[in-house]
Specification:
This protein folds into three domains: 154 residues, no CATH class; 164 residues, P-loop containing nucleotide triphosphate hydrolases (Rossmann fold); 128 residues, Helicase, Ruva Protein, domain 3, CATH 1.10.8. The chain is 45% helix and 14% strand. The strands form five sheets. It has a five-stranded parallel sheet. A hairpin with a 2-residue loop joins strand 3 and strand 4. The protein is elongated and about 95 Å long.
Length: 482
């Protein structure tokens, strides 16, 4: 990890305090714990000169613990009884470095020090004396040291702004951000769909961007210069929705003082996006079917049919085919709207796109004064590890919240990530099974994020088979591999 570690003000302050109060040294190691030889303690230098010395092993073990655990700081004892306090430096790909301090004893009686050294390193009397003279830390000392090391690690994270890897993949739909395999499949299908005027069904979970897909179809298609009208079918009750869709004539009901055209008339010549069509009542489904079959409808209270030319794009987070089987959705209407189907992937199936999407939303919700902000590596690591049940909409809301908390600061740090996304436990207690499932899901998503969606590599890191990873991901609602 290339970084001017010593030039960071927080590092200089932490190093000065550690030396002055406890005689400790501060260093920066790689993610695997290598680099211990660059900065260690005088006593460690003597010990490392002995045959069979294993001084660096403790730091490697600490790095391994940080890589596997959510904890950001660990306290590890070396073979000679000296203490290493190590803090994680995390990035979008997981652990990218370790800030550590060493040179004192914690929890080891002085009488045992020489015995530990002799057994581990066959050290000379001089080495044993140096280790025995190392200061012994109290519980309160360790708490303060942890804070200093953690602050230095946080400074390193802040000094490494997120860089989104460039992509050579291009497509005409500039509204769509990301290049994960699932997104590429959607774009490939869109290039064919926009050339037609057939009815389209967009299926996907809430917050995945179904309306964005509908807008792309309209504005890249032959009706781009005509109206694009949107109506959420779950927003109104039956009477209000019917009036909104088909309009009404004067006197049709109390308060209808004049003729009012419906949205189908407003969309004439263009595209009508019916969101959450699965929430439409059976009676309105019949009227919609008539529009699809005959391109006509009758306003509420009217007697004369109105003819329109409208392309319909429907969307639903529900499985309409299953609803048909349970007699909750008309079968004839289902076949009319399901001419072309586009399935929008949830965010958990495109983890590799999270950094690019997050940075996009940082730019989208820019500040009025024109200043820009960037995400720290620590903040991005927390965003990547979260499963995002609310999908892209939830991610955008989280970024907007972080920008508000940041004020005029140029960096969005890990501390600005909400407790929900960061995984901080608050609120009521949960059953053990829920806790285990949540932890397992977070581990799977984090591993997939570190390996940019490569399930084989994620399985190797987690020490499980690819088949078991897919099975657990499916059971936990994280999608299946391909």
């Amino acid at each position: 990890m290339v970084l001017s570690f010593d030039s960071l003000p927080e590092v200089a302050l932490a190093r000065s305090l550690l030396r002055r109060w406890w005689g400790l040294e501060l260093g920066l190691a790689e993610a695997d714990g290598s680099g211990y030889e660059r900065t260690s303690h005088a006593g460690c230098e003597t010990l490392r000169s002995q045959p069979g010395s294993a001084c660096a092993a403790a730091l490697r073990e600490a790095a391994s613990m940080l890589a596997k655990k959510k904890d950001d700081v660990v306290v590890q004892r070396c073979h000679a009884g000296l203490t290493i306090v190590a803090a994680a430096v995390r990035g979008g790909s997981g652990l990218i470095g370790v800030v550590y301090t060493t040179g004192a004893r914690y929890g080891v009686p002085t009488s045992e020090v020489a015995q530990l050294i002799t057994k581990a390193t066959n050290a000379t009397n001089e080495a044993a004396g140096l280790a025995a003279l190392a200061p012994e830390l109290s519980d309160q000392d360790v708490v303060r040291i942890r804070d200093l090391v953690a602050s230095a690690a946080a400074a390193v994270e802040r000094a490494l702004p997120v860089t989104v890897p460039p992509t050579t993949w291009t497509h005409p739909f500039t509204e769509i951000v990301g290049d994960a395999p699932a997104v590429r499949d959607v774009v490939k299908l869109l290039t064919k769909v926009v050339k037609s005027e057939a009815t389209v069904l967009v299926h996907g979970e809430s917050g995945t961007g179904k309306e964005l897909i509908a807008r792309a179809i309209h504005y890249h298609g032959p009706r781009a210069k005509k109206p694009f009208v949107v109506q959420n079918c779950s927003a109104f009750n039956d009477n209000l929705l019917e009036s909104a869709l088909f309009g009404h004539v004067r006197g049709a009901f109390t308060g209808a003082v004049k003729d009012q055209p419906g949205l189908f008339q407003v969309a004439d010549g263009g595209t009508f996006f019916l969101d959450e069509i699965g929430d439409m009542s059976a009676a309105l489904q019949v009227k919609l079917l008539r529009v699809l079959q005959e391109s006509t409808f009758t306003p509420v209270g009217g007697t004369k049919p109105v003819k329109v030319d409208v392309r319909i794009i429907a969307a639903s987070h529900k499985d309409l085919a299953t609803m048909v089987q349970h007699k909750q959705f008309r079968e004839d209407l289902f076949y009319r709207v399901n001419v072309l189907k586009i399935t929008v992937p949830p965010l958990r199936d495109r983890v590799a796109d999270i950094p690019r999407l997050a940075q996009f939303f940082v730019g989208k919700h820019g500040r009025p004064n024109g200043t820009t902000a960037h995400l720290s590596q620590g903040a991005l690591a927390r965003l990547v590890a979260y499963p995002w049940p609310g999908n892209i909409r939830e991610l955008e809301n989280e970024i907007e919240r972080m920008l508000v908390l940041a004020g005029d600061a140029q960096e969005l740090t890990a501390s600005m990530v909400s407790p929900r996304v960061a995984g901080i436990a608050i609120g009521a207690a949960r059953q053990l099974r829920d806790v285990v499932d949540t932890a397992e899901a977070e581990a799977l998503v984090a591993a997939l994020g570190r390996h940019v969606g490569d399930r084989d590599a994620a399985a190797v890191e987690l020490g499980i088979s690819r088949g078991y990873l897919d099975a657990r991901a499916n059971a936990l609602g994280l999608g299946t591999g391909t």
